[in-house]
Amino acid sequence: MLRRTFLALGAMVAMAFPLGSASAEQLPDLKGRAIVAVTENAYFPLNYTDPKTGQGIGWEYDAINEIGKRLNAKIEWKVSAWDAMIQAVRDGQFDIGMDGITINDERKQQIAFSDSYMVSEQFMLVRADEKRFSDAKGFAADAKLLVGAQPGTTNFYVAVAELLNKDEKSPRLKLFETFAASAQALKAGDIDATLMDKTGAEGFVTASPESFKIVGQGLGREEFGFIFKQGSDLIGPVNAALAAMKADGTLKALDKKWLVDAKKPN
Questions:
Q1: Of 16, 28, 62, 250, which one is least surrounded by beta carbons within 10 A?
Q2: Can you list the alpha helix ranges (DSSP code H) found in the chain?
Q3: Distance (Å, rounded) from C-alpha 204 to C-alpha 201?
Q4: pLDDT tens digits, residue range 157-184?
Q5: How far is it, in rounded angstroms, from Cα 79 to Cα 83?
Q6: Residue 12 has pLDDT above 50, yes or no
Q7: Using an 8 Å Cβ cutoff, are 226 and 200 in contact?
Q8: CA 186/CA 127 separation, integer angstroms
Q9: CA torsion sign, 54 to 259 to 214 to 130?
Q10: 116 or 22, which is more confident
């Protein structure tokens, strides 16, 4: 019932506030400035490669492209591995970065964040036929079960803290380069669970309900933000555009497009 209500609400929001409908009259004018944006292209449904076109698509692509339009800026897209992205933005190689990056105090020592554009929690993604456990406590109690995670990400640290008794070197922890790789390993039976923020986990379940499901409760709350070199003059304009997109319903329309309706490509 709740899902039907959410779908109906999302549809009404999308019709009432189509993308790009808000006036940009009061937003900063960047006068055609080029903004180099970077992402990983491996985090469905926030950013990934469309197999039909080879182009990067997803929630974050649409959001940044819309921000560029509203600020009269030209977005130039680049791709980087996750483990190099924060340092590259810090060094000024890119103007803005994104990959479902959690805002936290440790990262604020290296880079600056935009205002939050999405709030999520970590959830356990498991195979659709999983019956051995139904929550984090049940998983942690069975020493035979394996969890997959991407090093250096929130899901890695939450998995260690909540599932593995804070043991980062546990043999039950299997590491993967991307969220998608851990999901494929889960589907193949190589691991028994992987943690993802709610956005990513729901994306996989929506795209392939015969393969995946979510169990248990959320394991921690997190907010996502775009990242910049500290002191960047783009932070204020991007935050202004985000506020306008939130106010006119554009962010909710993006949620419907990518978090409810998107289907993960095979």
A1: 16
A2: 2-16, 59-71, 82-90, 105-108, 136-141, 154-163, 179-188, 198-207, 235-247, 250-255
A3: 5
A4: 899 999 999 999 999 999 998 888 999 9
A5: 12
A6: no
A7: no
A8: 7
A9: negative
A10: 116
- The rounded distance, in Å, linking the Cα atoms of 115 and 103 is 9
Which residues lie below 8 Å from residue 231, measured CB to CB, with a gap of 6+? 112
The three-state secondary structure class of 42 is strand
Distances (CA, A) of 241 to 47, 108, 171, 215: 20, 21, 45, 36
* Token pair for 154: 């929130």
Report the mean per-residue pLDDT for the chain.
Answer: 88
Taking the C-alpha atoms of residue 62 and residue 146, their distance in angstroms, rounded to an integer, is 35
**Highest-pLDDT range among 18-27, 63-72, 201-210:** 63-72
Q: How far apart are CA 132 and CA 143, in angstroms?
A: 12
Cβ partners under 8 Å of residue 213, min gap 6: 125, 126, 127, 128, 130, 205
Per-residue tokens: 10: 């999302």
CA atoms of 55 and 10, how far apart (whole Å): 26
Q: If you search the block for the tokens 């006036």, which residue do you land on?
A: 23
- 104 pLDDT band, cuts 50/70/90, is very high
**Tally of CA atoms within 13 A in the half-sphere of 197 that contains its CB:** 19
- Measured in residues, the chain has a length of 266
70/257: higher pLDDT: 70
Q: pLDDT at residue 254 above 90? A: yes
Q: Which two tokens stand for residue 60?
A: 């974050």
